[in-house]
Amino acid sequence: MRMTRYFIPTLREIPSDAQIVSHRLMLRAGMIKQAAAGIYSWMPLGLRVLQKIERIVHEEQIRAGHIPLLMPTLQPAGLWRESGRYDDYGEEMLRITDRHQRDLLYGPTNEELITDIFRGHVRSYRDLPLTLYHIQWKFRDEIRPRYGIMRGREFLMKDGYNFDVDKEAAIHSYNRHMVSYLRTYQRMGLQAIPMRADTGPIGGKYSHEFLVLADTGESEVFFDSAILDLQFEGRDIDYDSRGNCARLVDHWTSHYARTDETHDQDVFEETVPESRRRRSKGIEVGQIFYFSTKYSEPMGASVSNANGELVNVHMGSHGIGVSRLVGAIIEASHDERGIVWPSSVAPFQVGIVSAATGHAETEAVCNALYQELTGLGIETLYDDRTERAGAKFATMELIGLPWRITVGPRGLKTGQVELVRRKSGDSKQYATGEIVAALCYQLEAHN
Ligand code: 5CA
Fold first, then answer.
1. What is the atom index within ligand 1 of the atom nearest the CA of 110?
2. What is the whole-number distance in angstroms between the Cα of residue 286 and the centre of ligand 1?
3. Is 216 left (phi over 0), alpha (psi -120 to 50) or beta?
4. How confident is residue 234, by pLDDT bands cut at 50, 70 and 90?
5. Which of 1-15, 54-68, 128-142, 153-167 has the weakest average pLDDT?
6. Measured between alpha carbons, how far is 327 from 25 in angstroms, rounded to an integer?
7. For the segment 326-362, what is each residue's pLDDT rounded down to a tens digit?
8. Could you report how far apart the first and last alpha carbons of the chain are, in Å?
9. How far apart are CA 152 and CA 144, in angstroms?
10. What is the pLDDT of residues 362-393, one digit of tens each?
């Protein structure tokens, strides 16, 4: 992409109402624009990151055997009356009446709608296990939307729903989700800790939240610091194996880790040595639930089991805050000059900066490089504006692309260009004929 043909509405001034660094950086880098309180437009650069995150979520869900579909944002109130949640959900639910005076709502979550789909089509245990999910916009009329897209009113969520014939099978689905979530966050360069959590309006007995530690997080968390040393060992995970998934879940949940809602100070002190007790803040980037037959029973979602008996299906639901993750990744990865994207979610892999606008040879080399890199399928942002070199560097640092190639008359005298890594600031000169191979090597090495 050529910067002159693109749209990155960067801001020079830091807006005073942006309290946390990710919100400030997203506004400054022109990634989002507020439309109303807690409601944002995603500018082109922000959208690219959001879509990268979506893609990773899809890949890991599909790898775990879960099936994507797409449900609407607007839902009929009738289904929520069946489950009893229409009144229970309270003021966070945005209620809408259409021209025929029918009650609708903008979905804050989808347990009812998916249960309705299931009960209309599935009759037998032979069709189970089944996990359906989608990535769709949600609306929750949060009393205090804040921190930009971190606590929005409209936000993008991946929500998945498992249907199983009995509790054991549903616990396996729960475990499978936990493992697939840990993999998902890891691919985005995040360490998200599963913490035992309260179930809130979703209900049920089992729940874990996934928290990324950050001073700006809204959740208070208590944990054993040993959990920070855990390695994700499950590269080749057999998602069909109950034992394999259960072992991984045990591995990740054996240390004390709870949010303030479930924290028990006595248990904390009894089970965690004092030197390892940590109290901190965290950003909740996902939550999983097993709620048994809470929705299948009132809504009549049942299947015949192996003995021919009709049983209510066991369900759970599982959510990832897709739009919130953009903010969480920035909170975890930035410096005083701007964002430092992990390459898996970076909007472009490399930026080309011409350090001397109007200098014919410099521009020719930039153009050739740009053609070659885009031809190779490498996402490249070429800053071809007529700005000072300093301003171009500042923009590149702000928007945080993993690599920058700088081309200038001084280097070209000896046929060289510079490759800079955003994360470390390390820079190295390469001959113009070698830079593409060097970059490809680095992209591979740091993938
Ligand atoms: N039905 C369940 C699972 S699908 C559910 O709704 N779970 S949730 O309420 O925990 O939401 C899932 C994730 O969405 C949260 O962990 C959080 O990362 C994200 N999320 C929730 N509320 C907001 C919000 N107001 N703004 C941005 N992200 C949010």
1. 1
2. 6
3. alpha
4. low
5. 1-15
6. 9
7. 999 999 999 999 999 999 999 999 999 999 988 999 9
8. 21
9. 9
10. 999 999 999 999 999 999 999 999 999 999 99
Alpha carbon of 287 to ligand 1 centroid (Å):
7
Q: What is the pTM of this model?
A: 0.96
Inter-residue contact 418 to 427 (CB < 8 Å):
yes
263-311 pLDDT, tens digit each = 999 999 999 999 999 999 999 999 999 999 999 999 999 999 999 999 9
Q: Which residues line ligand 1 (CB under 6 A)?
A: 109, 140, 142, 151-152, 155, 157, 159, 202, 284-287, 317-319, 321, 323-324
Q: Distance from the CA of 396 to the center of ligand 1, in angstroms?
A: 32
Q: Which two tokens stand for residue 274?
A: 């004092």
Q: How far is the CA of 319 from the centre of ligand 1 (A)?
A: 6
Any residues with CB less than 8 A from the CB of 87 and at least 6 apart, and which? Answer: none
Question: 157 C-alpha to center of ligand 1: Å?
Answer: 7
What is the per-residue pLDDT for 114? Answer: 97
Percent of the chain with pLDDT over 70: 98
DSSP 93: S
Residue nearest to atom 23 of ligand 1 (CA): 151
- Distance (angstroms) between ligand 1 centre and the Cα of 321 equals 5
**Residue 205 confidence (pLDDT):** 67
Instruction: Please name the residue whose Cα sits nearest to atom 22 of ligand 1.
Output: 151
Ligand 1, residue 288: give the atom nearest the CA. 3
Calculate the dihedral angle through the C-alpha atoms of 102, 70, 128, 159, rounding to the nearest 10 degrees.
Answer: -90
Residue nearest atom 24 in ligand 1 by C-alpha distance = 151
The CATH fold of domain 348-446: Rossmann fold (3.40.50)
Instruction: Tell me the domain boundaries of the chain.
Output: 3-338, 348-446
Superfamily of domain 3-338: Bira Bifunctional Protein; Domain 2 (3.30.930.10)
Can you give the length of the chain in residues? 447
